[in-house]
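Subject: Protein entry, chain in single-letter code together with its fold tokens

Category: Structural biology, sequence-to-fold work with a learned token vocabulary.

Notation: Tokens come from a learned vocabulary of local backbone shapes, not from coordinates.

Start of record: The labelled sequence and token lines come straight after this line.
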Amino acid sequence: MPLSSYGVLVGRPADRRREGATDSPHYQVRIGGGPSYRAAVNVLSAESPSELLYVVDDDLRHPITASLDALGAGWHALPPRGGLDFIRANLFDRAAMRTLPPDAAGPDNDLADLLDHYVQRAIAEPAAVAYVFGQSWGPDAAKDKVFGFKPGAGVHDIHMNQGNSPAFAKDDGVWQDGGLLLRFPERWVGIFLAFQSQAWHTDDATGHAIAAPPEPQPGPVVEDPPVRILAAMVNPVGGAPERESVLLLNASPQPIDVTGWRLADRAKASCTLPTSRLDAGAVLTVPVTNGMALGNKGGSITLLDKAGLKVAGVAYTAEQAQREGWTVIF
């Protein structure tokens, strides 16, 4: 079953603790701005390979941020489809994920160092706000074991929460992934973590794996997708019906059979690609048809293969879509 108490914690980052590389270490953050909470961020997996996958978007532009501005300090339970989903919400390019050890001698070479870079900057910036997605615990009568505040309360599972191995499949669900978003005065930063043992094709209802993760290989953690979404005409000049379109690129050195491939919007309405073959290096403009729509208030575009598995995905904000006639470039 999915996480029992999923939501987002909002508040000011006030302190942090590193736990080294022993047992099941976490990077701990005290969140204030109201009652104190502790955010426990995993930096090591209990399963092999133990190093976590991570990606940081240093200038996050995604529709999710618009829904967070109105939330006050404290814990907020989220409705279905109101949270994060690494696969369905197109939060980041999975091919950009890399691994880091939890703790290593020297500067700027482990996951705790990376988290320190952003969290300490947020602590020093009076206007910065943290949005921590995950599963809540507490309040407990006892003092918090890390920071000593009372009552103890916080959030954990601040990582991908679907596609788990059988040992952790009970936690699988959709739209319940964890993440750390930091809002600075000038921009948003998104920090997203996953375990190498998790699959990236999951069931739309249960979040269970429907395709196993690849065996770890040296070099880049995830191969680049052969077909990419380059751009989209989201807000064409003129009134309805609008001539929206999406531009694809076959970045691979071989032609690709795209028979039965589809583009889908965030409501899962979809249209079929108008060709069965995409040559190496070729671009393809796909007219948006069949009820699929690219909303001007922000949205997502997902490319699916003939089996319905995600090949690539992007998202855009209302700000990016507001200029009529301009192409949004990803």
Notes: The first helix runs from residue 111 to 124. The two ends are 35 Å apart (CA to CA). Helices lie at 111-124, 318-321. The chain is about 5% helix and 35% strand.
